[in-house]
Amino acid sequence: MKEFPLAINGHFLPQTVAGVQRYAYEIIRQFEQQGHSFRYVKPPGSLQSDTLRQLWMQGVMPFKMKGDELLWSPTNIGPVAKKNHVITLHDISDQLYPEWFDRKYVQWRSFILPPLLKRVKGIITVSEYSKQTILEQFPFTKGKVKVIYNGVETDHFYSRDRQEIAALRRKFDLHKPFVITVGSLDPRKNLNGLLEAWNQLPEMMRKETDLVVAGGGMKTFAFEIKEKIDNSVRFLGYVPDADLPGLYTAAEAFIYPSLFEGFGLPVLEAMACRTPVITSNSSSLQELADGYALTVDPHNSTAIAQALQRMLDSRKLRNELVEKAYSYARGFKWSVSAKKTYDYLKERQSS
Questions:
Q1: Burial of 75 (0-12, 13-18, 19+ CB in 10 A)
Q2: 86: pLDDT confidence band, cut at 50, 70 and 90?
Q3: How far is CA 57 from CA 149, 222, 229, 309, in A?
Q4: Is residue 264 within 8 Å of residue 258, measured between CB atoms?
């Protein structure tokens, strides 16, 4: 395919790597491997505050563009004044559930999104569910929204050997069998619902098995833990990407009872590490995992507890889920996501 002038909004580069930042890095890495040329347009390093970087993006970034360059903003936000522009909007949870987020953050997003989405040439999102919610909330985006699924980095997310697992157990002081959940500490990840469910498990099961929570808080979210924290619950804080595959592999199961997801990448990452999964039967997670995981109503703590008990009680069930889900998860390739993304950007640039 003939190249075209592409600039990438580098606003995300100084940020902690969570789901949307990982998406950006993976797609861009594939662009490089596929030989596509691009340049970053990014705030100066002297701007330490995210607020200042946001203001720079809106007020200065449009004037840093060259000629007929197309700007791609991969992490939910971009400059309103730039018309030759495609944005990846992973989800609109802040618009649908504003109570989960910091009030000022919601006000800013509510102010910026309508004019931004009206002006851009195209909108990429990561699931049919996300597309549906965007169209319902912003009907004027009809004809602009393209679904391109995420991928899984299978060179990184794969089942690790006993030596690596033993080292990670020592590093994180994990001596018992454990169930793991991964994600930022924010309301939609439903940690309170999971803790409520965990407290319903038989006492002996909680004595024999830990619940490991990997992930840190983010200032854009309004979240507090309200449930009793059992002695068997372990909070690891933010875990480096390098350690995640070994932790997935070591776990008896991965649980992700999220109330809302635009995609749900950790579900596929766990599957690729041959870890059985429990996740929600709603939002994009139903679309992504139905038939390959135990799916439950995330609003029903008793259902979550029953799924946990069923999973922990049955090695046969765990093995069956792993065998079904492993090849399925490995079918989600970043190289395919990147090719579809580049093709769409090229199409929009010439429109």
A1: buried
A2: very high
A3: 27, 25, 41, 48
A4: yes
pLDDT > 80? residue 184: no
Give the separation between CA 136 and CA 147, rounded to whole angstroms.
15
Pairing mode of beta strands 122-125, 145-147:
parallel
> Residue with structure tokens 């690891």?
236
Structure-token pair, residue 148: 């391109």
Angle, helix 334-349 to helix 19-33, in steps of 10 degrees: 80
CA angle 70, 88, 21 (to 5 degrees): 105
Alpha helices, H only, the chain = 19-33, 50-59, 93-96, 103-119, 128-137, 162-172, 191-200, 203-208, 244-250, 265-272, 283-289, 301-313, 315-330, 334-349
Beta-ladder partners of 147: 125
Rounded distance between C-alpha atoms, residue 54 and residue 116, angstroms: 14
How confident is the model at residue 297, as a pLDDT? 98
pLDDT by residue (tens digit) across 52-63?
A: 999 999 999 999
pLDDT over 80 (residue 220): no
Q: State yes or no: pLDDT of 221 exceeds 50.
A: no
Pairwise CA distance, residues 12 & 300, whole Å: 35
Among 136-140, 174-178, 188-192, 336-340, the least confident range: 188-192
